[in-house]
Amino acid sequence: MNVYDSERMADVLAPLGYRTVDTPDNADMVILNTCHIREKAAEKVFSELGRVRQMQDRRRAGGEDMVIGVAGCVAQAEGEEIVRRAPFVDIVFGPQSYHRLPEMVARAARASGRAVLETDFDVVEKFDRLPKTPPAGSGPAAFLTVQEGCDKFCTFCVVPYTRGAEYSRPAADILDDARRMAAAGVCEITLLGQNVNAWHGEGPDGGDWSLGRLIRELAGIPGLARIRYTTSHPLEMSSELIAAHRDVAELMPYLHLPVQAGSDRILQAMNRRHDRDTYFRIIDRLRESRPDLALSGDFIVGFPGETDRDFEQTMDLVRRVGYAQAYSFKYSPRPGTPAAALGAQVPEDVKSARLQALQDLLNSQQLAFNRTSVGRTMDVLLERKGRVDGQLVGRSPYMQAVHVAAPAHRLGRIVPVTIAEGKANSVSGHIPATHAEDAA
Ligand code: SAH
Ligand code: SF4
After folding, report:
1. Ligand 2 shell residues, CB under 6 Å
2. 158 CA → ligand 1 middle, Å
3. Is the pTM of this model over 0.90?
4. C-alpha 356 to ligand 2 mean position (Å)
5. Once rounded to an integer, what is the mean pLDDT over residues 382-392?
6. Residues 395, 285: one domain?
7. Ligand 1 atom showing the smallest separation from residue 257 Cα
8. Average of pLDDT values for 316-325?
9. Do 340 and 243 share a structural domain?
10. Under the phi-then-psi rule, with left for phi > 0, alpha for psi from -120 to 50, and beta for the rest, what region is 270?
11. Which of 62, 142, 293, 368 could form a disulfide with 138 if both were Cys (CB 3.0 to 4.6 A apart)?
């Protein structure tokens, strides 16, 4: 989501003559787009700002200037503190304000020494005012935000406070964007939202559409070969969306469906609003609909009050579901969230040991999944050059990174690849001879 937001910032700044550069050292403007989800990410902002300040000093010593901006959720949550602790910052703005960047830049130029702070929540205005160009810098695979914000209020999470209430963009606007992207050569779209499967909106036919319905419509756009969506909440996995996994060939057989924990007691304390059995039933229905569906998830270990038995329930859930990929984190108390105020915080060494055990299990599942791909031939969208000469890197339908020997002119194309090796974080293979000849 932050990658997408950064690209949109580049879009709004382009008419002012700004373009993105690869390194910050000699830039006219540096914007840190920040994440507040865990303490570690938030802390990084201040150390990064120290580095950027040195770059600003060097530019000024040479008679030039550097505008410094802090964007994203740390700006939203700690804007005043940034202004106080880092007075050399010119603009501070939250995730729903960046369409106003041109005005902020102009105001910063006039404000001489006082930072411009913008942390409004006007998400409708934002989408209305963003330029309607195909996204900057996107290759054959691109993101498209369809939903923002969250009303779920899981007790550990800052998102509802930093990104605001749930908002679904109108279907017509999304379809418009997708058509424009496809016309510009994008063949894979990932629909984005904090709770993307909670998306609903008025369709062009006047009816109330769910995400499943929207995906069916997107699949009809010429040139759009692949559709993905992330990130989803188990409770919003509607029948129509599950059915789309059966019926829509363009919808890729990979789903990120975070569960966070495997113990009912902890799920309840997290305010996830479902129990482990409900999660299992949803997974069963999904697999009935799409037997080869690869699953990914997010997990938190060491939530306040988590016992060894609770943690064992998480391990058990992971064993029962079997993940192709996953993200796992130590619980990080976030200011203002209910869980941060709970007693029974889990000691750091216990969190570390649990994280290690969980990651060992998840890594072994990922390796096993990648190994089961060996011998199969699957469609791979070639997205970028690899580190080795003559090698391209792409994504399988199951989101695996695939290394393949192929000529550079095949970048952006979907090619069949026979998988020869499955490793921890990727697979590798070759284009079958018949297809390699086509390319010549
Ligand atoms: N909307 C998504 C999650 C968005 S946040 C969902 O409900 O699944 C991305 C992930 O960060 C979460 O799934 C969670 O695993 C992790 N996370 C959020 N807050 C956290 C915290 N306080 N400590 C540790 N991990 C956290
Ligand atoms: Fe955070 Fe996701 Fe829960 Fe919303 S549903 S509060 S974004 S973890």
Report:
1. 150, 152-154, 157, 159-160, 194-195, 233
2. 9
3. yes
4. 24
5. 94
6. no
7. 8
8. 98
9. yes
10. alpha
11. 142
Residue type, 353: A
Same domain flag for 163 and 281: yes
Q: Distance, CA 150 to ligand 1 centroid (Å)?
A: 12
Q: Of the candidates 121, 156, 178, which is a domain's last residue?
A: 121
Asked if 329 and 189 sit in the same domain, the reply is yes
- CA-closest residue to ligand 1 atom 13: 298
What would the two tokens of residue 147 be?
Answer: 């939903």
pLDDT digits (tens, 9 = 90+) for 272-291: 999 999 999 999 999 999 99
The model's pLDDT over 17-33, given as tens digits with 9 standing for 90+, comes to 999 999 999 999 999 99
Same domain, 298 and 433: no
Name the residue of 37, 196, 301, 337 whose CB sits within 8 Å of the most ligand 1 atoms, as the mutation to test its pocket: 37
The rounded Cα 25 to chain-centroid distance in angstroms is 27
Minimum mean pLDDT among 98-112, 238-252, 339-353, 355-369: which range?
A: 98-112
Say how many Å lie between the CA of residue 157 and the centre of ligand 1. Answer: 6
Please check whether residues 382 and 291 belong to one and the same domain: no
Structure confidence by residue, pLDDT tens digits, 135-152: 555 689 999 999 999 999
The predicted pLDDT at position 440 comes to 42
What is the model's pLDDT at position 41? 83
> Is the separation of the CB atoms in 86 and 69 below 8 Å?
no
254 lines ligand 1 (CB under 6 A): no
The answer on 381 and 326 residing in a single domain is no
Q: Which tokens sit at 53? A: 């300040």
| Lowest-confidence pick of 233-242, 339-348, 410-419, 427-436 | 427-436
Are 3 and 137 in contact, with CB atoms under 8 Å apart?
no
Token reading at 106: 């102009």
pLDDT band at 438 (very low <50, low <70, confident <90, very high): low
* Average confidence (pLDDT) over 52-62: 96
Ligand nearest to the CA of 231: 1
Cα angle 179-100-229, degrees, rounded to a multiple of 5 = 35
Closest residue to atom 4 of ligand 1, CA basis: 194
Q: What is the distance between the alpha carbons of residues 32 and 71, in angstroms, rounded to a whole number?
A: 6
Question: Which of the listed residues 329, 354, 372 is the one where a domain comes to its end?
Answer: 372
Compute the distance from residue 152 Cα to the ligand 2 centre, in Å: 6
**Across all residues in the chain, what is the average pLDDT?**
94
- How many angstroms is it from 37 CA to the middle of ligand 1? 7
Bridge partners, 395 (sequence order): 381, 401
How many domains would you assign to the chain? Answer: 3
CATH of the domain at 31: 3.40.50.12160
- Going by CA atoms, what residue is nearest to atom 21 of ligand 1? 332
User: Is the CB of residue 232 below 6 angstroms from any atom belonging to ligand 1?
Assistant: no
Closest among 238, 236, 310, 308 to 270, alpha carbons compared: 310
Q: Are residues 134 and 250 in the same domain?
A: yes
| Domain CATH number, residue 212 | 3.80.30.20
Q: How far is the CA of 29 from the centre of ligand 2 (A)?
A: 32
Q: Report the alpha-carbon distance of residue 168 to residue 111 in Å, rounded.
A: 35
